[in-house]
Amino acid sequence: MNIYRTHNCGELRASDLGKQVRLSGWLHRKRDLGGMLFATLRDNYGITQILSEPGSECEKILSSVRVESVVTVEGEVISRGENINKNMPTGEIEVKLSKVIVQSSAEVLPFQVADDDNAPETTRLTYRFLDLRREKLHANILLRSKIISEIRRRMTDMGFVEFQTPILTSSSPEGARDYLVPSRLYPGKFYALPQAPQQFKQLLMVSGFDKYFQIAPCFRDEDARADRSPGEFYQLDIEMSFVTQDEIFAALEKLFIGLFSDLSDWKVTSPVFPRITYADAIAKYGSDKPDLRFALEIEDLGDIFAETSFSLFRDTLEAGHSIRGLCVDGLADKSRKFYKEIEDFVKEQGGKGVATVQFKDGEVKGSIGKHVSEAESAALRERFNAKDGSALFIMAGETDSIAKLLGQLRLKLADILDLREKNSYRFCWIVDFPMFEKDEETGEIIFSHNPFSMPQGGLEALNNMDPLEIKAYQYDIVCNGIELSSGAIRNHLPEIMYRAFEIAGYDRSVVDDKFGGMIQAFKYGAPPHGGIAPGVDRIAMLLANEQNIREVIAFPLNQNAQDLMMRAPSTVTEKQLKELHLKIVE
């Protein structure tokens, strides 16, 4: 018999009445009700109420130890009578104690575990082992484990085989900064922790394996965001041979529909997920990760104002820029304060402001109402199918800039007006990404997405088209405005890879040096292949309905990429530096 427990703390029911049991766990709460000491005991599985007789040895022991101490108790399962707690699975019973053993005493807590305690995140991360005892966070980490288990089962059922790829590898120019590991045996040389297993999973396809997956750790020295953990993260890495985009999409849709339907009671997009081109996503939603839980779409209004007498709009169009807008029902009666808040928000995002048009009682009002002709008013009503009482938010300026600003305004209006569909997961694919883009700082042509993607049109497109017009077989999967993953059909032909990298400013020698293993492999027969890598952390964040990714990671770094609990990064000894042939330069 186990010396610590006969049952766990979430197991006992009315059917166990009269049994002598032994439980172990953390002392969750204590209450002294007129000499009768009630307490709750918590473990990984749940909570059980325990009570001790006044003046008993059990009462003395429990009175003397703090909450969060670890104890083993023995006693009889009895009914709680009229005091049943329907909110607890064990709420019909309690354990009347005959013995208490203190396994480990707790010191004064830096924050409360049993109650909602708005402790600063710095304190929570410093004492993460305590934070993980709290009900919500504890449940999130268990959910994450279940998600990974379900992913493995479903991927295996679909014929995928799990592989492990190296953690120590070579540095490559893939976008983010590498974490470098100095070599003791080769002075002045470094390994890199993988930003992703990209080259290795492609090499597995070249090696004749057909369907690969891995719950892969990835390492990138980049700043934190609400949906991105600095330092390291995990992704469901996938690669398939002899496939097109459609077959990859079908596999991922099957996985996500099953996973999200089984682990949540929210509505999930039915197959086939909507496919939106990158250009349309930017034009309609001002973002390449649109939130489809509400239908507010951006419209191009350039044609409507082509003959406008309003000088600002006329000058904008003559300069080759754009006029675009959003329309929201029922806002015409909003106060000046409301519209001032919208104006201030746009300026906070870097915009110059936003023009408004309001349709109210058959009249045209708003900040530019007097500049809108009858014909323009009628065209705007028709374009947006605008009802009386609607308000338009219009911006004029450089096309990409106002698209982004209207995209941010779209999300802000959804927040203010509570427009999002409740309890739903709305997926979509973003397709036809540009192969190249201009670097905003240098003006040079760079890869816009994954450098290993196959350009649409192949070598002919690379040789004959404007690089900024070339589309790639690249795609993102997005859910509720969160990008879960990027993927692509890969470039498996050496001559196309050399030419694509040449356009992005890398000569043949750089490709041979940085991607030598893969380019050499492609010269010995490579299958057409493609893949994707959804973020496990982001999947868990969605299923746990959390806004911050650190709430689904057991031991995350803080926003400054520090582990406050383990005190990393830390200094190392002079001996270690010497072994690695390194010197610290202040």
Features:
17 helices, 586 residues, 5-stranded mixed β-barrel, alpha+beta, 30% helix, 24 strands, 8-stranded mixed β-sheet, globular
Task: Characterise the protein shown here.
With about 575 residues, this protein is an alpha+beta fold. About 30% of the residues lie in helices and about 25% in strands. It contains 17 helices and 24 strands. A hairpin with a 2-residue loop joins strand 15 and strand 16. Helix 4 (about 135-155) crosses helix 6 (about 245-265), helix 7 crosses helix 11 (about 400-415) and helix 12 (about 460-465) packs parallel to helix 13. The model has no long low-confidence stretch (mean pLDDT about 95).
Helix and strand arrangement:
Blueprint (H helix, E strand, L loop, with lengths): L19 E14 L2 E8 L2 E7 L4 H8 L5 E10 L13 E12 L16 H6 L1 H4 L3 H23 L3 E2 L16 E4 L7 E4 L4 H9 L4 E10 L10 E11 L3 H19 L3 E2 L6 E3 H8 L13 E2 L10 H8 L3 E7 L7 H13 L6 E6 L2 E3 L8 H11 L6 E7 L1 H19 L6 E2 L1 E5 L4 E3 L6 E3 L10 H7 L9 E6 L2 E8 L4 H10 L4 H7 L1 H7 L6 E4 L3 H8 L30 H6 L7
Parallel strand pairs: 3-5, 6-9, 11-18, 12-19
Antiparallel strand pairs: 1-2, 1-4, 2-3, 4-5, 7-8, 9-10, 10-24, 13-14, 14-17, 15-16, 15-17, 19-22, 20-21, 22-23, 23-24
Helix pairs in contact: 4-6, 4-16, 5-15, 7-11, 12-13, 14-15
